[in-house]
Amino acid sequence: DVVVVGSANVDLVVRVDRRPGRGETVLGSDLSTHPGGKGANQAVAAARLGARVALLGRVGADGHGRLLRESLERDKVDLGHLREAGAPTGVALITVGPEGDNSIIVSPGANARLEEQDVADAAGLLRSAPVVSLQLETPLPTVLAAARAAHRAVFNLSPPAPVPDELLALCDPLVVNEHEARMVLGAGGPPAEQARALLRLGPRSVVITLGAGGAVAADASGVTTIPSPRVEAVDTTGAGDAFTGALAWRLARGDGLADAVAFAVRVGAATVRGAGAQSSFPTLSEVEEP
Ligand code: ADP
To answer: Which residue's CA lies nearest to atom 7 of ligand 1?
Structure first.
């Protein structure tokens, strides 16, 4: 149903009372180690809902790479195009402060070695999928090549960075959160206005996620605001990735944009109810309407 082209990281998380200054050492909690990376998160989110998903990416020939493969296999993500790179598996070094605030250093490692050639080698796979889901934790030329090869590209412009008009024009939809929308447009504003402004940049459709506020969807037929179910938010990590993975799957199944977004906001809301990223992604029965 969905091919995800993107990143796979191991998240290494330590809780601290305060962060070290220059030249200083502080003691933190026990280390916790979690599978992550936006690409792997999107893939797992869709697969856990029942989608058939392949992840095109790179990991290192190391223990972290094995950990990622094992966790992706548990969620039945097809790893036929997850290659090894001559570099360590990507990691995110995360400290969590006393207020739950994150500071993160990402070492892209193998993710930075995902090349246009990897996309070319997977041409048959990409052609077979109605939707290809993309983010920006792998090199831009690779993302652009994948968008060109896709029947339909869902692109989460995250982490935000300047991208060529050609890539924007291939997005259907472009998916951003409010912060990313502001970065791309260089100005804030009401979500519906932001969505219209993003649409003028060329994508066929736009989705802005609004946290507890749900999401807005915009295409040539108009702008729709879709509220999120009210939930008690425990940890919002990975909510955007779960949203995008779910959205990609529903679009691949033939849903219209507003219906797919209405489903994806339920998946996002379910995700924030639990701690961690992939560990809190729901199964289909957990988000189906009663
Ligand atoms: P990101 O994780 O990229 O910052 P958002 O915070 O906008 O993205 O969240 C993505 C989606 O997750 C939202 O569209 C919504 O469906 C859901 N979500 C996030 N936070 C909450 C919340 N506090 N309550 C309910 N749903 C939420």
So the answer is: 211
Q: pLDDT per residue over 216-238, tens digit each?
A: 999 999 999 999 999 998 888 89
DSSP state of 113: G
Please give the domain boundaries of the chain with CATH numbers for all domains.
2-7+38-87+111-280 (3.40.1190.20)
Segment (H or E) for 190: none
Q: What is the pTM of this model?
A: 0.96
Ligand 1 binding site (Cβ under 6 Å of any ligand atom): 177, 209-212, 214-215, 228, 231, 233, 236, 239-240, 243, 265, 268-269, 272
d(CA 226, CA 217): 8
Determine the Cα–Cα distance for residues 264 and 257; give it in Å rounded to an integer. 10
* Exposure on the CB side of residue 141, measured as CA atoms within 13 A: 8
